[in-house]
Amino acid sequence: MxxxxxxLSRRDALKLAGAxxxxxxxxxAFGALNTEAQAAAPIAAKGKIVVIGAGxxxxxxxxxxxxxxxxxxxxxxxxTQTHLYQPAFSLIAGGxxxxxxxxxxxxxxxxxxxxWIKQKAIAIDPDAKTVTTDQGETISYDFLVIAAGIDLNYxxxxxxxxxxxxxxxxxxxxxxxxxxxxxxxxxxxAAESKKRKVSALxxxxxTPIKCGGAPKKIAFLAQDYIRRNGARDNAxxxxxxxxxxxxxxxxxxxxxxxxYAKREMSSRFKHKLVKIDAARREATFAVPKLVMxxxxxxxxxxxEFVTKPYDFIHIVPNQSGAAVVAKNPKLAxxxxxxxxxxxxxxxxxxxxxxxAGDIVATPFGKTGGSAHKHYPIVAQNLVDTMQGKPPSQKYxxxxxxxxxxxxxxxMMLEFGYKGADGSDTLLPSAPLDPTQERWMWWLLKVHxxxxxxxxxxxxxxx
Length: 462
Ligand SMILES: Cc1cc2nc3c(=O)[nH]c(=O)nc-3n(C[C@H](O)[C@H](O)[C@H](O)COP(=O)(O)OP(=O)(O)OC[C@H]3O[C@@H](n4cnc5c(N)ncnc54)[C@H](O)[C@@H]3O)c2cc1C
Known about the structure:
By secondary structure, the protein is α/β, with parallel strands linked by helices. It is 28% helix and 25% strand. The chain has a five-stranded parallel β-sheet, covered by helices on one side. It has a five-stranded parallel β-sheet with strand order 11-18-12-13-14, covered by helices on one side. Strands 6-7-8 form a three-stranded antiparallel β-sheet.
């Protein structure tokens, strides 16, 4: 567990094979579109396609387009050489995998049929159909896929900047360097708990975020690590949530609440982190409070500020779509994400523009699991548009949170868009109670999901 290498015994491997087969067998959506694409004859549609972002969503969409089109003309724009498999960040922070584990060389995954411009897109003119790069190039397109992911903004919290991650008890697994430093911080916290009472705060934020379960994954890992390696009775662990519930899907919220009670972890709702005083190790939260307005004669909401000391604080930064979209009012919604039809993932103003991955302004679904569903849908709908047809594929909002609940157990929370009556939609991949923590899902999360990503998804094969 803590030796930075997780090895798989023969018994584990057999169980994992069973789990993976169960997922494939019971989730018909898992490979359906891929099979169709591989079987169909290449399509002769023409047009220059530009893809912004060579992350999970961009590369797999480009790869699928290369498969679908007889004569693809695809240009990918991204200045990063290394792709980071972000779902491993929680595992790095927990000491389960090494800091090198999530690194993939982008050059190995850019599809052979695509051209790669190693620059950053800094502006999109959707009327002129051009993208401008940081090196002053203007690239025209007929069709554009925007898959530039999310920007993190730690500086929105007073007193905090990204360089502080890993120092003075400030941790964050949302940034790669934060995840790598968090592992030392967790060990220090456990060691400290053997000497005195310690307090750890696990914060959340009010903007849409990627992997909404990550702030709880790190809390559960910390709890279990201290239980095994420190003095659990000396550690107060508190989840500081900004909303008023444990999770957006009620049955999962109920299951998570029970786990917090079972693990003797505390919680606060409606607490938004607004300030850090790193020197004093104090965090200030804005908490809404109703006060009587004597002039209006009604109660109005105001913020009251609550300051808490901490030994360890986990930060979730404010998040928006990548700046190239967030700063473009023709493309972005008020929170900086790409406006698209939430089913077809096509822009309703600019039908030649599609979005894939974290950047799209869907109600939720900022996970690699969502990107895995997006890419075949976007590629097919784009090809439909090239052929003058309406988009044929619809995204059902599928997303997944493999919620780590202990070293060795995961609750697999899968769901989609709510029904028209506001009811929750559960989309479990296997016919098992999804509210149960399972070792089988831990094996899948730790050993199988990354290989699935680089062996099949990035190559549009699954
Ligand atoms: C801590 C953590 C835990 C997670 N756990 C899970 C999990 O367990 N399961 C799960 O399914 N998902 C998880 N995720 C979420 C998952 O990593 C993302 O949803 C997924 O990476 C989204 O893919 P993407 O292609 O949209 O974005 P990314 O993979 O982030 O790629 C975006 C790409 O766009 C590029 N880019 C950005 N701006 C520009 C620009 N201006 N010009 C050109 N290129 C640009 C970037 O360089 C990058 O290569 C987790 C994320 C985090 C942070």
